[in-house]
Amino acid sequence: MYAAELVEVTKRFGPVLANDGIDLAVARGEVHAVVGENGAGKSTLMSILYGLHRPDAGEIRRDGRTVALRSPADAIRHGLGMVHQRFRLFPGLTVAENVVIGAEPVRAGRIDRAAAARKVAALSERYGLRADPSALVGGLPVGVRQRVEILRALYREAEILILDEPTAVLTPGETDRLFEVLRTVAATGVSILLVTHKLSEVMAIGDRVTVLRQGRVTGRFTTAETNADELVNAMIGRSLAPSAPKRARPVREDPVLEVRDLTIHDADGVARLSEVSLSVHPGEIVGLAGVAGSGQRELIDSVTGLRGAVPGVFLAGTPVLAGRDPRVAYVPEDRHGRATAPGMSVAENILMGAQRELSSRWTLPTAAVKRRARDLVDRFAISAASVDVPISALSGGNAQKAVLARELTRPSRVVVAEEPTQGVDVGVRERVHALLLAARDDGAAVLLQSSELSELRDLADRILVLYEGRVVAEFPGDATETDIGRAMTGATA
Amino acid sequence: MNVFEWSFLAGVLTATAPVLLAALGGLLCQVVGVFNIALEGQLLWGAFVAVVVSDLTGSAWAGVAGAVAATVLFSALLSIPAVGLRADPIVIAVGLNLLALGLTAFLMRQIFGSGGTYSSPDLTGLPDLGELGLDVPVLREQSPLVPVALLLVVVMATWLTRSRSGLRLRAAGQHLEAAEAVGLPVAAYRHGVTLAAGALCGLAGAQLSLGNVTLFSEGMSAGRGWIAVVAVMLSGVLPYRLLLACLLFGVAEAFGFRLQGAGLPQQAADAAPYVITLAALVLAALWRRKRSHEHA
Amino acid sequence: MTAPALARRVVVSAPVVAVAGALALTTLVMLVVGVDPTLAYPALIRGAVADGNLEYTVAAFVPTLGMALAFALPLRAGEFNLGGDGQLAAGGVAAAALALLVPLPPVVAVVLPLVAGALAGGLVAAVAAPLSTRLKIPAIVSTLLISTPAVALASYLVRFPLAEAGTGIAQTPTLPDAAHLPFLGGSGYVTIGLPLIVVLTGLWLYADGRTVTGYEIRATGQNREFARYGGVRVDRVAAVALAGGGAFAGLSGALIVLGPPYRFVDGALTAPGYTFTAVAAVLLASARPVVVPLTVALLTVLQVGGQGMEREAGVPSQLTQIVQGLIIVIVAVLATLQARRRR
Ligand SMILES: Nc1ncnc2c1ncn2[C@@H]1O[C@H](COP(=O)(O)OP(=O)(O)O)[C@@H](O)[C@H]1O
Ligand SMILES: [Mg+2]
Questions:
Q1: With contact defined as beta carbons under 8 Å apart, do A302 and A265 qualify?
Q2: What is the pLDDT, as a whole number, of residue A238?
Q3: How far is CA B207 from CA B22, B58, B103, B268, in A?
Q4: Do A363 and C210 touch (CB under 8 A)?
């Protein structure tokens, strides 16, 4: 009998079939890896198991009995705990409060803070999950926040612990420590569902592994009896394409993008960037690696002008313009944050930034705007019913292609791309990569920020590593993930 | 001590009480992440129902109870669409404020036969604390709802920080997804709190029409619900700071009365509370900005 | 689209459902308090469109449409302007003051006060812009807070410095003849304010859909981060939208004052409730600007008809405020239901 089973689970989001008849079973005390490319449906499946989404079809069994999970509250009652890809913590509450909330120790009608702190401290001690119970979560580094989420599940005595891409925000060292914790936890009989798209991790900790591709199960393996190639095949449906041909070193022209001694403080006076210097030349892709929150946001906002006129950033030798420097093409990470206006049409979204050039004086040439949008939709193979539908009607991958279409057709020699393939499927990912390489070959200077080292290694000519707001290392594009990973922890090479 | 000063203080308290009661409701909503700008309409509705019920039954306390019940019902018009159906709470509130204005003016004419202001010897107001035996300066001529309002500040502050339900409410307002993930029934909290805010606005209305005065006049809430909204914005969701913000308004209004007595035009008195509240809002925002810029 | 299909789409469209729902609920209120709807509604219709009344309805359409623009323009940029009353009063008093105090030649005597009114209204509204963009004080709160003092100031000016001597009534003297808005055709109510506001509405519709500024305003309203990222100077766009809205309100105030009875009567600008009738109309148009003139016309008929209903059937005209409030609530509910169905 399995601790938990998902049977024939199907889930649809509008046009997207996120999960298509998925079967998955996890045994007691097992570490079960769930792998698949971005957009394969892993998070959706885990959310269904945790009661966050209701499946359109299929059922969930706990210890062999069918259960209805209408909400996380139901899931918690059935012994499930989840560490979310985007943490679900209360920034204004303490570590202890975040852990005990929902099952708080009470004495005489009041929360027994002492007991809460004690219990949390005992748990951290036992599993080696260090966290100060009285610290406010809002001020904690990501690694510690993740521990709080794990502590929360353990406090509730979860028998099945789901972790959705826990290592995406961790340095390799932190990842190793997490895996130790997970092994300890599994040894007590807790089943662990570990979502990842990194094969090395699967091989390192998984007992068994289920592979998803485009919402379907494409492979089930026992790690001891499989190898990375087999997994890759199942993940992407063929063997890994040889990485993009790295160009021979271009003849060096002067850099188009130059950052000199850039230091930036946040509202609380903490330095977010310290004396950062870098340059990007025409015809090269410079990769930007680093754990989340190492200063990437501040650097990119400075380079694009969105942070205002910051001293020390130069485009083609002149200071960056405040607001949004039109000389930079910029593909932002969060499509719903700044990259699109969901309620506006595809044409209007593609127009943004070019509205003044396309217009003579006041009037917007509506027909020309649409013609141009249609043209780009064709050229970038965006599947959209028409350019008049709201961009929110497009799938994530097509919306991303629309963003790229808009940005890469700007008359600019600098391209800044931020997690350009986050949440898109394999086909779109390859298309995006091809577009960035083409831009480079056309002589653009590309700054590429990505949390996927494999992406950086596939595309970048050089890789810079940010750590606590400093550039701590520079690698050639073919450096090993181990070396880059080590630099991301701040360890000097 | 000068009697005049005592009376000024009493005036401040009288002016503060209805705003404070409504603002406590707004604060509760803010805690769980509902931006409630329907306080103005609810306050007016509460004031109206209090007068109608008191007039009908001859009991001010029945008026208070009626106002609370009726305003809870009224606030369901906010909670059901805005919380249950996730309609835009701002638009709903704009509609409800207008609805309250129209309903009270319409029903007033239907029930009392004329518009404008209704007062009558049959209409019983809330007793003074002095009559109830609490013969101390400042409080002597206040209704019992005034100390209740002040007490509620303390109760709410303690409850929100110390109790289990208080913690959960605060959490639910901080991060919706996180609250869902730990199994908190956020929607139920939001419904409950919106209705509770209705109850508080009912009290506020009753205090306005049966405590501060004993009459109902069209639009008598006169922006107090909006001042309460501002007080909530100034409070940083802390009940004691909310009290301070409401007192500021009370001082402004009491001061306005005195200005009028001193011969300044009534328009200055009308404008004073708004000007002062807005100034406080701006100063608070500037101060916050300055503090964060000092570091940068 | 075939004719029946089009008809079906119109009938189940949000505005129609909202108005029908609001009227149904209002009828319920009538029945509860013992008003006979079969007397009230015909009286309402007659009050609005019976000859003689129709002219008055058309006259009331002008400031209501102006106030609708005052609310709609900032709303496109994502700012709620609820301070229409203050902007209206400021515009009215500025126009009256200029017309009374400065002797002006014909034509200029009409044009300058109108411009002054628009400027005054725009100025009052523009105060909210930096509060919103720099200090994060929502415009919905600040415009409202500024409104009452602005109304109070106008009221003070009309009662004291600008008051008509000797009457004791809170109003200015009659404006000089040169400042009177000419009537349209043979009407005794409808002035050239009507074509003026209609043309301005047309210009706004054109600007909204077909100009760079309109596009940038809409982008700012849809997703401010997106607009900023695209190089739009969002703070300035928000300020322009708020000031523009205020200017429409101020112009409406000036149009009222320069029309019959050609003076600023204290309270006469704000008492008819143009501001919130307009808010309801704009929300009823549910983000389709072209529909705004139609919804304004509909709600003006209701508003003016309400007064006729009160005169003729003794049913308090405040009933129309109930209808407006309900319309707004129902529109908001329908909007979410539709958004959910689309997903
Ligand atoms: N809430 C949602 N609404 C619409 N589409 C969604 C939603 N969540 C996920 N999707 C879509 O479902 C697919 C699977 O997403 P997800 O489960 O997050 O993949 P993974 O975690 O494997 O990267 C993607 O195409 C994604 O865009
Ligand atoms: Mg995922």
A1: no
A2: 60
A3: 10, 16, 20, 25
A4: yes
Partners of A36 in the β-ladder:
none
Residue closest by Cα to atom 3 of ligand 1 = A13
What domains are defined for chain A? Answer: 4-236 (3.40.50.300), 242-327+412-493 (3.40.50.300), 339-409 (no CATH)
Last residue of a domain, one of C231, C254, C272: C272
Name the closest-CA residue to atom 18, ligand 1.
A43
- The pLDDT tens digits for C175-193 are 999 999 999 988 888 999 9
Q: Which of C341, C329, C249 is nearest to C64 (CA)?
A: C249
Q: How far apart are CA C241 and CA A133, in angstroms?
A: 49
Distance from the alpha carbon of residue A164 to the mean position of ligand 2, in angstroms? 7
Task: Give the mean pLDDT of C36-42.
Answer: 92
> Best substitution site from A9, A10, A11, A16 to test ligand 1's pocket, by max atoms within 8 Å of Cβ?
A16
- Short-list A309, A308, A411, A294, CA closest to A356: A411
Decide which of C69 and C51 is more confident: C69
**Spans of all domains in chain B:** 6-295
**How far apart are the C-alpha atoms of A462 and B202, rounded to whole Å?**
67
Q: Which residues of B touch A152 (CB under 8 A)?
A: 182
Rounded to the nearest angstrom, the distance between the alpha carbon of C190 and the centre of ligand 1 is 59
DSSP string, B48-68: HHHHHHHHHHS-HHHHHHHHH
**Interface probe, candidates C144, C307, C340, chain B, greatest B C-beta count within 10 A:** C144
Query: Rounded to the nearest 10 degrees, what angle do helices B224-235 and B39-57 cross at?
Result: 130
C-alpha dist (Å) from residue A333 to B278, B286, C108, C165: 38, 32, 56, 68
- Which architecture, in CATH terms, is B6-295? Orthogonal Bundle (1.10)
Q: Token pair for residue A307?
A: 């942070």
Q: Are residues C290 and C302 in the same domain?
A: yes
Ligand 1 binding residues, C-beta < 6 A:
A 13, 16, 18, 36, 38-44, 396, 423
Q: Based on the domain organization, do C48 and C96 belong to the same domain? A: no
For A16-32, the pLDDT digits (tens) are: 789 999 999 999 999 99
For ligand 1, atom 6, the nearest C-alpha belongs to A13
pLDDT reported for residue B258: 82
Instruction: For residues C34 and C165, state if they share a domain.
Output: no
pLDDT of residue A454: 84
Predicted-complex ipTM score: 0.93
C1 pLDDT more than 60: no
Q: How many CB atoms lie within 10 A of CB A68?
A: 10
Distance in angstroms (rounded) separating the CA atoms of residues A382 and A294:
33
User: What is the reported pTM?
Assistant: 0.91
Domain end point (choices C272, C295, C318)? C272
Element (H, E) at A73: helix A72-77
Across the range A342-349, mean pLDDT stands at 95
Low-confidence ranges of chain B (pLDDT < 50): 1-3, 296
Q: What is the pLDDT of residues A350-376, one digit of tens each?
A: 999 999 988 888 899 999 999 999 999
* pLDDT computed for residue B296 by the predictor: 46
User: Is B149 exposed, middle or buried (CB count within 10 Å of its CB: 0-12, 13-18, 19+)?
Assistant: buried
